[in-house]
Amino acid sequence: MNAAVPIAGNRFVIIGGASLVGSATAGELLDHGAAEVVLFDNFAFGSEDAIAHLRDNPRLRLVRGDVMRLPDLLRALEGAQGALLLAAHMTLSMDRDPWGGLDVNIRGVQNALEACRVNRVRKAVFASSNAVYGYGPNVSGELVEGTPFHTVGVPPAAVIYGATKIIGEALCRDYHRKHGLDTVVLRYCTVYGERQHYRATNALFIIETLDRVRRGERPIVLGDGSETKHFVYVGDLARANRMAFAADATDVAVNASGPRPITTLELVRLVTRLAGGGPEPEFIAEDRGRVRLTSGGAFRIAHEEAARTIGWRPEVDMEEGLRRLIAWRAGNEPRPAAG
Amino acid sequence: MNAAVPIAGNRFVIIGGASLVGSATAGELLDHGAAEVVLFDNFAFGSEDAIAHLRDNPRLRLVRGDVMRLPDLLRALEGAQGALLLAAHMTLSMDRDPWGGLDVNIRGVQNALEACRVNRVRKAVFASSNAVYGYGPNVSGELVEGTPFHTVGVPPAAVIYGATKIIGEALCRDYHRKHGLDTVVLRYCTVYGERQHYRATNALFIIETLDRVRRGERPIVLGDGSETKHFVYVGDLARANRMAFAADATDVAVNASGPRPITTLELVRLVTRLAGGGPEPEFIAEDRGRVRLTSGGAFRIAHEEAARTIGWRPEVDMEEGLRRLIAWRAGNEPRPAAG
């Protein structure tokens, strides 16, 4: 049995495609000769802007549809060899709307996998998250794929979000086991890069820091700045998605993280420097108004298993990735999030 | 603020009430002077038999309704001071029907909590499970409330079941935080006792062993019989539910387990002895036909936190509990499960 789905000549559907990761992956798949890439989106979070640069490509097609409507997915996936499942609520919107979030993150995934089964799609790549390891005082050190889900002291919305990703992964395993659908689960860590959106707690921190520095305001660091973050550049993630389809791997779940973690203080200093300099950061004790995701100490999201299973390694470090983000943002006015 | 809801004079609704735990808890609440106990059930898993012994009590009322229909719950919870949330799919039915199982275990809980909020119910007690600690090689030793969720090597349906309970708990915390609903989460371990049903993998093992011994067949032990199980007697659990309402505790999650764990071999020998003797057990390597839940070594589900928060300790050990189960079963013919 060969679980590889070559990119060239095949048709892919990106569910939740009008997004940061969706648009980058569409470009990646088109660059590698995909016969067609369909971006399926309900535009609840997605935006026309995120995909404007792709609209002229004759092999790209936009389909308005909703993951909560199985018939939409059944039609969109006709004739597809690969499906990338991105559509999801993240922690912030899960906090605002747990009803919609649980629908999309669970029933939406079931609908997508069912539509893959019915249409005999060869492979589904599911966007999971390092949120499956949880947060809180017990999360530190090397986070490998066998790390359990820690929830002590974690805000409910973040627990719910992580648990929905665990369920999505288990549904992938269940469809593989019961129906032979090939699946690769990629546990994304926080994504940043060109066409950055405003929906993820941690990615938002980069944009907020950049905006403050550009306005000449002091960037804000919570606590002493020693808290770890581990990001991944969107272009690296697009490549991981492509390689997940093209690799022979199936029924696996692997981390997709950037070259190395960074502390919040290092991040603020790096953004400040790349933005051309700015005032010293201000250290504040806490930010009461927002769901905050903290860990117990320094950690690193290990990506060695991804190298073993799909041959992927991150290539863009934060200095280079932030440089690209800042260059892109210089030509784009801030827009508040719809989601 | 006092989160205690005295039993005497108050009205309680047991959602998923026509069940092993539901009927036992109804009896417990009625015995302690509840003004009314409503058993809400759709009879998908529940049965008239489970509650037949209660039907003559004028303070008991049966309401046919479905947790997937919010209006059913809104009506049933009118005027209630307490709600016990039992309705759930367990691992075996989650494997057979992940669509129905995810609906009931997630949206059903949301609907129940929402109906509590609208009706100003004072306290909700949510039936969670030791499944929130997962299974597999890393689950051993003392399982305390902060133990994370282990999923490596665990069957998808068991992962999904455990994750739905984690989500249910987080929804309780969310309703407490956002709406002030008092909640106590009890993490039940496998329940056994009179009016035992056929739905839970581990509880089923007791009944199957008993049935084999009574037929003069050799009881079956998987592996070498050293595997740990930790059960709780249904009467102890009914008392835990009552004490969760009556205690001042809120926004807590605690284990509810029997006095001590048991190995499968000890269990088989105990059941055989209490049934009046029988042939020696047969040791088989594995049971391919069924979802099996294993742990990595000896474990104990700690119940000390329940003593601290709601004053509850288990009282009935397995010898006494099994004696009661066997006496009850002697007067009841085996019936296969509907669920």
How would you sum up this structure, described in words?
Two copies of one chain form a homodimer. Chain A is of the alpha/beta class. The first copy, chain A, has a domain at 11-195 and 232-259 and 296-316: Rossmann fold. Helix content of chain A is 39%, strand content 18%. Chain A has eleven helices and 15 strands. The first copy, chain A, has helices at 20-31, 48-51, 70-76, 91-96, 98-118, 156-179, 201-214, 234-246, 264-274, 304-310, 318-330; strands at residues 11-15, 36-41, 60-64, 82-85, 123-129, 141-143, 182-188, 190-192, 220-222, 228-229, 231-233, 252-256, 262-263, 282-284, 299-301. In chain A, the strands form five sheets. A seven-stranded parallel beta sheet of chain A has the order 3-2-1-4-5-7-12, sandwiched between helices. In chain A, helix 2 (48-51) links the parallel strand 2 and strand 3. In chain A, helix 1 packs across helix 8, helix 3 (70-76) crosses helix 5 (98-118) and helix 5 (98-118) packs parallel to helix 6 (156-179). The longest helix of chain A is centred in the middle third of the chain and has 24 residues, at 156-179. Chain A is globular. Chain A starts with 10 loop residues before the first strand and ends in a 9-residue tail after the last helix. The mean pLDDT of chain A is 92. The A-B interface holds A 98-99, 102, 106-107, 110, 134, 138, 146, 148-152, 156-157, 159-160, 163-164, 166-167, 169-171, 173-174, 177 and B 98-99, 102, 106-107, 110, 134, 138, 146, 148-152, 156-157, 159-160, 163-164, 166-167, 169-171, 173-174, 177.
